[in-house]
Amino acid sequence: MTLLKLYATLAVTVVIFSTSHFAAKGVKVSVTSSGPYAVLGQRFVFTCTMSEASDISATYVFLRAGGSEFKYHRMLQNKTVCEHSPVPMPGWIHDRFSSFCGAGTNQIKSNVKKYIFVMRKVSKTDNNKQWWCEVSSDHLIIDAISKNITMRVRTIKLSMFKKSSETVLGKPLTVVCRLTNAVNLIATVYFMKGTASKENTVAMLHQEESHCSEEGASTRGYRPMCKKGTVSAAFEIKEYALKISKLASHDNTFWYCRLQNPETKTFIGSPAFRLTLWEDLSVSLSTSSRQPAYKQKFTLTCTLTNAGVIRASVEFRSQINGPVRLSGALAQFDGHCNAEKVYTGYKAKCGTGTEVATSGTKVYVMEIAKLSTQDNADWFCYVQDDDSGLFKESKDKFKLCSFQCEHGTLQEDICKCNCNNSWTGDQCDICSLKCKHGDFDNSICKCDCKAPWTGDDCETCSLMCENDGVVSLGCVCHCINSWNGVQCEICQVECENDGTLNTSDCSCYCPEGWSGDKCELFVGEENETQHLADGVDGAIIALIIIAMLVLATMLGALGYYKRRKSTKETIDDVDFVSSQEQTDNPVFSSNETDTIDEVEIANLGVSVREEDLESVNRSVITDTDEPSDVGRMGRKK
After folding, report:
1. In CATH, what is the architecture of 7-153?
2. What is the CATH number of domain 278-399?
3. How confident is the model at residue 522 (pLDDT cuts 50, 70, 90)?
4. pLDDT tens-digit readout, 289-300
């Protein structure tokens, strides 16, 4: 009896095993995935579907990958019971994959049964890998194999930006977190601000494929919102927004959007978004307490407020009636500051707050080694944002004036030296004189002029010519007559023959008988002879006229006798006159006479009355007594 029972038991066991194995032989299997591609760092789902699978038992369903001999997470289907296979698997498979029973697995008559295999975190090594499902009724025999699925891995991208509204303190602002390659996303979205050493989460949203909702409590003043693409798992682009009710100074920092995988608790983060308060950024320029002094050290300080997380260039500039001049430039990049270029004589340095990105106040310093005239200008601080190109300048410009006028006075309103005569240059230290007729003294910028030159540059002729002299080229007097000397002031005449010098007109007063500029000419005998000749000529002419008158008178009926008597009386009168003339003029020659004697009258052959002859001789005497006009000793002609 016992033996019969044992045989019966064995027979039943063989029948059950054969039936189960046979039933598995007719099944079909296929594989699908949760999306067209997998997202790096996110989970990915494979679904194995068995058809023609009613009334099966002792059947295993598992996932396989190309290049691997492992069977990932085998599921055991035994009629209405679906469970994990008791066969142990490597720990890394257990940690990275999970599986569970899907639709139809708890119904023995269900012709379709689904099995879910979840890859908790996609890695780069999964890209382009082949995956498929297998079904077996025991550990050795494969009853069905699905077609392959090639996994394409993409990287999800996160970015953060603000809406078009300006960032102004006290005003609302909305920032947006955008995800791309976000198909079938299952993750938590975090809005965070601050730096790596001090981060704060202000709000969270959870995306479960086609469902998005706020998660947890948000910080007061911040409200997260599900936006574009969050209502469908199939959308590749999804956007999440955070509305800031009122911007505060602590918002002037870095903002981040982060994505957390709920399976692995790992994060994917967006690049930092710098929320700068550019509209509220203020720039001021100050100087050291000491007054600017020529050729001395001087310091300028540029201070920025509301300057958290800026990326900008900071420049020290100057300008006066011309182009802008750059003397120092610094680059501020978050928490790093350095000089962009070195300018000789100028040193730009990063000051307080420049090494802390979120510091709202940043200080920059410019040291001028020695103030020069080119530094006398309007100085200002110029700040330009690297991303937007927007710029700001210090409101109040500092007018730097450090002139030292060597030979002049400083006009402070225009910061310029008014130079004294002949001095030029920015500091009135250049002498512009060119001494044309003199010696130059550079120490006092003065010409030592040679006489008679005068003026600042010795080019003015001050010579005054006297006594009608004329100034000629070369500043020389051209003298006339007997004048000489530099100014024609010297009379060089020496009067001869007892002549007397008249210093008023530089002429000689000559004694009688002498003439010429120096009384060097003897003119006495020559003048007397000429005088006598002139008297004789006049007498002869007078006699001719008288003779003609006498002839006219004698045509009367005078008798011969009376004529002879009249002639004798006339001759006596002539002798008397001639004798008197010789007494008054000792130089008169005894061989010469100006009177008409008897012989001459006889030669005329005419009769002359006594009164007529006397009248003629009187005329001759009158002519010879008139003084000469030659010199001061001669007689007039």
Report:
1. Sandwich (2.60)
2. 2.60.40.10
3. confident
4. 777 888 899 999
Amino acid at 175: V
The domain locations on the chain are 7-153, 156-274, 278-399, 417-462, 528-625
CA torsion angle 577 579 583 585 (round to 10): 70
| Per-residue pLDDT reduced to its tens digit, 596-613 | 444 444 444 444 445 554
In the structure encoding, which two tokens stand for residue 377, read together? 């200008």
Q: Which tokens belong to 508? A: 């000689």
Greatest alpha-carbon span in the chain: 254
In terms of C-beta density within 10 A (0-12 exposed, 13-18 middle, 19 or more buried), how is residue 330 classed?
A: buried
Confidence (pLDDT) at 69? 86
Contacts 24+ apart (CB under 8 A), 542-550: 542/616, 542/619, 542/620, 543/596, 543/616, 546/612, 546/615, 546/616, 547/604, 547/606, 547/608, 549/612, 550/606, 550/607, 550/608, 550/609, 550/612
Domain covering 156-274 assigned CATH 2.60.40.10 in the classification:
yes
Helix 610-625 vs helix 560-584: crossing angle, to nearest 10: 20
pLDDT (tens digit, 9 = 90+) per residue, 410-421?
A: 777 667 788 888
Mapped onto helix, strand or coil, the DSSP state of residue 6 is helix
The reply to whether 156-274 and 278-399 are identical in fold is yes
DSSP line for 199-249 = EEEEEEEEEETTEEEE-SPPPTTEEEEE-TTTT-TT-S-EEEEEEESS--G
d(CA 174, CA 194) in angstroms, rounded, equals 17
